[in-house]
Specification:
476 residues, mainly alpha
């Protein structure tokens, strides 16, 4: 019997690879894609607003947009386009007398888009035509509205457009019911539509035929009340309005809504009482009016002076302390993510709360039973510091370019431009070319600056990898 032989492990033949069999290992290194600075969210918002300004300027340059021969002067078209898209209301030419109906329609379109927000408008148009809203576009809408949630963004956008449009339609119907007895029907429709949109979006543009414009209506409770209500609601922000409509109870509101309501009511009360007391006996403003008209005019002016720019008093004849108070309120502006510009009442509320907490010796900032994140408090402080420094720089430049103007006038116009309010005490129509450029930039920064700074800070927030040793510095 033959024995079967099984090779042992040591007896196995090991074949060594030849040099030709060795294949080189190729490493493919894919470079990390760095997001383009051009498409970064804050910068994209800036570029888009610049695009709207450019389109508005080109349309307003056309010969048939203004009364008179030839093309519109470039600076007039640029200034008006910037003022309309930033819903400011500062003008170098009278809107009712200088621009034709077509030019006024262009201005109205810019006001509507600027007040609603270009990302909200663009997203809504895509929804209407059946286009898919991408994740990047949802992020843009979320950050332009300054909210944290990403879900239901399309639904929120539709809700914002519907709510804003309904409010303006109600305002239009109320104004039309009054203008119908004053103008022919087509003119009454136009006047009601223009001023409803201008009031809700806090633009301050007026196309009334009367020589005194709104001053001629300061005894008309219906017109004054309707426009004041539109101005007040528009300065609250869309999210606060939706919160009010949906929840209807203060205890259920978000912390943001509570702070906006409290600060808005407090500042409005200060404005109304301050204006009434300061101008009660001034023969050039409230002095000749009856007590009822003084109160109605003060309520309207107190609501309008912080965000809208409509006026029913000759502010260039107002007392200096009245204009200083108005300048401070214009610098503060309205609520974040609203139609208003300026520092914003949310930012001011956080700064005041942090100061109160520091004075009381507390380490954390809280309000209405909720604690505010430390990063949010730091951003509010930065926004406040940057806004004050920017205002100082604008005032300094205007004192150079407008050497014949007084400091009170310069401070007033600078605050009006930064807060995108539109009130003027006579300096804006007489600005030099350099002064016009300064105000144009100020209106643009006032509309987008604080928002852009806040979004940039939110994108770049990161944890510190290391910390330095602490050392005290003498202050106070």
């Amino acid at each position: 019997m033959r024995e079967s032989w099984t090779p042992k492990p040591a007896d196995r033949v090991v074949r060594h690879p030849r040099e030709d069999d060795i294949q080189p290992i190729r490493l493919t290194i894919t470079p990390r894609r760095v997001p383009s600075k051009f498409t970064a969210t804050p910068l994209l918002m800036v570029y888009t607003f610049l695009g709207f300004i450019a389109v508005g300027t080109l349309l307003l340059l056309l010969p048939f947009t203004h009364h008179g021969p030839g093309f519109t002067p470039f600076m007039t078209a640029l200034f008006t386009s910037t003022s309309a898209i930033t819903v400011t209301g500062l003008v170098v030419e009278d809107t009712a007398l200088y621009w034709t109906r077509f030019g006024q329609v262009v201005i109205l379109g810019l006001i509507y888009v600027g007040g609603l927000g270009f990302m909200t408008t663009a997203t809504f148009m895509m929804i209407l035509i059946g286009q898919r809203v991408t994740l990047a576009q949802r992020l843009l809408v979320r950050e332009s509205l300054m909210i944290n949630q990403l879900g239901s963004m399309v639904r929120l956008t539709v809700g914002i457009v519907i709510v804003a449009t309904l409010i303006q339609v109600v305002g239009f119907l109320a104004l039309f019911g009054r203008f119908f007895f004053m103008y022919p029907a087509p003119e009454a429709v136009w006047q009601a539509a223009f001023h409803a949109v201008s009031a809700f979006n806090g633009a301050g543009f007026v196309v009334l035929r009367e020589v005194d414009q709104l001053l001629a209506f300061r005894g008309d409770t219906l017109i004054m009340g309707t426009m004041a209500a539109l101005i007040f609601i528009g300065a609250l922000s869309y999210l606060v309005i939706i919160d009010l409509v949906r929840l209807r109870k203060f205890a259920l509101f978000t912390l943001n809504t509570k702070l906006v309501l409290v600060m808005t009511l407090a500042l409005t009360l200060i404005a109304i009482v301050g204006f009434l007391l300061a101008e009660y006996s001034n023969v050039d403003t409230l002095g000749p009016l009856s007590i009822k008209d003084k109160v109605v005019s003060s309520i309207f002016q107190g609501i309008s002076m912080r965000t809208a720019g409509f006026t029913i008093a000759e502010l260039n004849y107002a007392n200096p302390h009245t204009n200083v108070l108005t300048s401070v309120l214009m610098f503060i502006g309205g609520a974040s993510a609203s139609v208003a510009g300026g520092l914003k009442v949310n930012t001011l509320a956080i700064i005041l709360l942090s100061v109160i907490a520091l004075v009381r010796g507390r380490n954390n900032v809280s309000a209405f039973g909720r604690e505010l994140p430390a990063s949010l408090v730091q951003r509010a402080m930065v926004l406040g510091t940057v806004s004050i420094a920017f205002m100082f720089f604008v005032v300094l430049l205007l004192t150079i370019s407008e050497s014949t103007a007084g400091l009170n006038e310069i401070l007033f116009e600078a605050a009006s431009a930064f807060g995108t309010v539109g009130l003027s005490i006579g300096l804006t129509p007489n600005l030099s070319v350099m002064g016009e450029w300064i105000i144009i930039v100020t209106m643009f920064i006032g509309k987008l600056g604080p928002l852009t700074i806040g979004l940039t800070m939110a994108q770049r927030s990161e944890r510190d990898l290391y910390r330095y040793p602490q050392e005290r510095v003498t202050i106070g």
